[in-house]
Amino acid sequence: IRVDAGIRAGDAITPHYDSMIAKLIVLAEDRDDAIARMKRALGELRLEGVKSTRALHLALLDDPSFRAARFDTNFLEPWLAARTPAKPSAVPTTSA
User: Fold this and answer.
1) pLDDT reported for residue 80
2) Is the pLDDT of residue 19 over 90?
3) Distance set, CA 22 to CA 14, 65, 78 (Å)
4) What is the rounded distance in angstroms from the CA atom of residue 32 to the CA atom of residue 95?
5) Three-state secondary structure call for residue 28
6) 49 — alpha (psi -120 to 50), left (phi > 0) or beta?
7) Burial class of residue 21 (count of CB atoms within 10 Å of its CB; 0-12, 13-18, 19+)
8) Which pick of 7, 24, 25, 36 has the fewest CB atoms within 10 Å?
9) Cα angle 51-80-20, degrees, rounded to a multiple of 5
């Protein structure tokens, strides 16, 4: 498990920061072991002061298509859309 980061404790992150301030990298004997190792590393990762994509990555790691390596570059948008709750539609009011 390795973390490559462009920031250290005490550094300031401006509102215009690059969203990839660090990356978490794992290596394992096979895909299943790499996924398990990444889930553990994400669970133990401590990041404070900025929003992260940890929850997104944990959900992706649990997705059956991802786990089976059945995805392509068009995978993420439909995957996200299927998990985003639909906004409630406006209920028309009727006047009596």
Assistant:
1) 92
2) no
3) 15, 26, 26
4) 59
5) coil
6) left
7) middle
8) 25
9) 35
Q: Which two tokens stand for residue 5?
A: 């980061």
Length of the chain: 96
pTM for the whole thing? Answer: 0.75
> Residue 64 corresponds to which tokens in the numbers above?
């059956």
Q: Where are the alpha helices (DSSP H) in 1-96?
A: 31-44, 54-62, 64-67, 76-83
10: region left, alpha or beta (phi > 0 left; psi from -120 to 50 alpha):
left
User: 82 and 75 in contact (C-beta within 8 Å)?
Assistant: no
The confidence band for 88, taking pLDDT boundaries of 50, 70 and 90, is low
Residue type, 81: A
